[in-house]
Design a protein that fits this description.
The complex is a heterodimer.
Chain A lengths: L1 H29 L17 H8 L2 H31 L7 H13 L2 H15 L5 H24 L4 H9 L4 H30 L2 H6 L6 H10 L4 H34 L1
Chain B lengths: L1 H4 L9 H15 L1 H10 L3 H31 L17 H8 L1 H35 L2 H12 L6 H12 L4 H8 L13 H26 L2 H9 L4 H12 L1 H16 L3 H6 L7 H10 L5 H34 L1
Helix pairs in contact in B: 4-16, 5-16, 6-10, 6-13, 8-10, 10-13, 11-12, 13-16, 15-16
Classes of the chains: A mainly alpha, B mainly alpha.
Chain lengths: 264, 328
């Protein structure tokens, strides 16, 4: 009975693995098709779509634009998110629950509504649509994720370490810089990479706050609206491999760092 | 200060260490720094205020600000305001929503779709989470979970496109069915609520899987064993033990997926058709045209947000009462 259940469940798991991987694998394969028409079967293969990606100047520039936006937004959200986490974790004060609710608010607002609200607010602040507006919207949207990850890590910091530092004469700022901050490094790095990917992949905020220059997802969207072509598959595959590789590397990296600091 | 502590390490600090220590030592004995720190940390109250000021300012102006500004604009008759024109407050934008069928149809469609897709995601991912948490050794658990995480690092647009290739008329599914001679003509999957559902479930599955997995993983195996010893069948064990004790994971997973599903814009545009227009497309429409439609868009976005919050709030209340009812 139990054994039968187990086999059935493992089939469900592998079916699910197929469900999440097959569409992506098919999309990658289609980028090597030697024909303009998207569709199966693929009879002959080519690399032309990939070499074509670099001839079209719009793709590399959209790529660089997206990376710059992601890096700037991540720097802002990491600083703000960490600060908020330090305030919220292990401290009791009036309005802490409200403060926590407000902190996670941007992560809970559905995508389209958050994009509209940011667009209206940017207009009110006088920020023109374009890079500044996108960076700002991504930064605000990502703060909750940083705050949650850093709070989780901070809750495991032994209080005795801070107390020992203070007993040895360190003021609160030096104790923070030399004890708390180094302890938070794995969480901060993990959160940074998560933010980089969130921002790099974001469509809806970039679409509504962007100027004339498209980010990579916005460019792919625009190309898709004017028709499917293996060229899009080539662009999407490059983006896919890059983000998945960074994601996997970050996962391994943060796990190793967590393990090391636990052994200390 | 720190300099005195250093030599205790035995062999004596190397040069890099000494430099760092002298830096911190120098910093803490540097008069301007000491004055500033002294002032800032004079009392716990002042220290707290300095720590709290910036985060408080940030969440009020950056997290709450955009939502409040959206609410304010939704009550105005023109935004952005043209020079020389006076702005008036009005309820017309809300009246417009309730007055026209073409507005509230996509609204209710969005909520229905989001509800149905959330339920599908739950049904699809619960057995996967259950298998991972219950039938896999701890070491393989992380690996098998990581395997599922990989596709989720890929962006929304790329994954939507992958679904387009899967379900198109010359797509993989139709070609497979054709080669098995199950069909003569391709089934038109695309631009229907079906293709949209497949896409949205594909995009949100992870947000359901992770809360379910962590709820199932926390549940001690002994509970099930005890129930089995008392003669409960597998189905009864699941219904009376596992399911009630993972309600919290179900509740947070569903809330998250529901909120995300209502907010999709690009996926319905690319995978849906004229008969599946969702409210996100309606809202976006007001921002593509001349500026005076912004207040209506803001009002519609406010309505959508309130509806989503009220529904998820009611759902969480329901789940909480189920949990409490079960304990008695």
């Amino acid at each position: 009975m139990n054994r039968g259940n187990r086999i059935l469940l493992s089939c469900v798991y592998w079916a699910f693995v197929l469900y999440v991987f097959v569409p992506l694998v098919l999309m990658i394969l289609m980028g090597f098709k030697d024909s303009k028409f998207i569709g199966f079967p693929i009879r002959s293969w080519t690399l032309d779509w990939y070499t074509g990606v670099f001839d079209d100047a719009a793709v590399p520039s959209a790529f660089i634009y997206s990376v710059v936006i992601a890096v700037l937004a991540t720097v802002i959200s990491v600083i703000v998110g960490t600060w908020i986490a330090v305030l919220l974790e292990g401290r009791k004060f009036l309005g802490r629950t409200a403060m926590f609710g407000l902190t996670v608010l941007p992560a809970l607002v559905p995508g389209i509504i958050s994009a509209i609200a940011f667009r209206i607010y940017a207009r009110w602040l006088g920020i023109e649509p374009g890079m500044g507006a996108i960076v700002w919207a991504h930064a605000v949207h990502n703060v909750p994720f940083v705050a949650l990850v850093v709070m989780a890590r901070l809750s495991t910091l032994p209080k005795s370490q801070i107390e020992a530092a203070r007993d040895l004469g360190a003021d609160p700022i030096i104790a923070f810089l030399r004890i708390t901050l180094p302890y938070l490094v794995p969480a901060i790095l993990g959160a940074s990479i998560f933010c980089l990917l969130l921002s790099f992949d974001d469509f809806v905020r970039s679409f509504f706050l962007g100027g004339y220059e498209p980010t990579l997802p916005v460019l792919i969207f625009a190309k898709l609206r004017s028709g499917m072509s293996p060229e899009i598959n080539a662009i999407a595959t490059v983006a896919l491999i890059l983000t998945a590789a960074i994601g996997i590397w970050a996962e391994r990296f943060t796990r190793r760092m967590n393990k090391e600091s636990r052994n200390d | 200060m720190s300099d005195e502590v250093a030599p205790r390490t035995g062999r004596g600090p190397d040069t890099a260490d000494r430099k760092r220590l002298t830096f911190w030592g120098a910093l803490s004995s540097w008069t301007p720094y000491r004055v500033v720190v002294g002032l800032a940390t004079a009392s716990p109250r002042r220290q707290f205020l300095i720590l709290a000021a910036f985060p408080l300012l940030w969440v009020l102006t950056q997290h709450l600000g955009p939502m409040l500004q959206m609410l304010r604009v939704s009550f105005t008759d023109a935004y952005p305001v043209a020079p020389g024109v006076e702005q008036h407050f009005t309820l017309d934008n809300y009246a417009r929503f309730f007055g026209d069928y073409i507005f509230w149809q996509p609204f209710f469609r969005t909520l229905t779709f989001a509800g149905v897709f959330t339920f599908c995601t739950l049904i699809l991912t619960y057995p996967v989470a259950y298998f991972l948490a219950r039938h896999v050794s701890r070491k393989n658990q992380m690996l098998m979970l990581l395997l599922l995480l990989i596709p989720f690092w890929v962006g929304e647009i790329v994954r939507t496109y992958a679904i387009m290739i899967l379900l198109g008329n010359t797509g993989a599914v139709n070609q497979l069915l054709k080669s098995l001679s199950l069909i003569d003509r391709p089934i038109p999957f695309m631009y229907t609520s079906f293709s949209m559902g497949v896409g949205i479930v594909y995009l949100t599955a992870l947000y359901m899987l992770l809360p379910l997995y962590s709820a199932l993983e926390k549940l001690p195996k002994s509970y099930n064993e005890a129930a089995a010893d008392l003669g409960a069948s597998a189905w009864t064990r699941f219904r009376r033990v596992t399911l009630p004790l993972t309600l919290e994971g179900i509740s947070s997973g569903c809330t998250l997926v529901f909120l995300i599903s209502t907010g999709f814009y690009a996926t319905p545009v690319l995978l849906g058709g004229p008969s599946t227009t969702v409210f996100a497309e309606t809202i976006a429409g007001f921002f593509h045209v001349a500026g005076d439609e912004w207040p209506t868009g803001a009002a519609f976005a406010t309505i959508m947000f309130l509806a989503a919050i009220v529904l998820t709030g009611a759902f969480q209340k329901l789940m909480n009462s189920l949990r409490k009812g079960d304990r008695n």
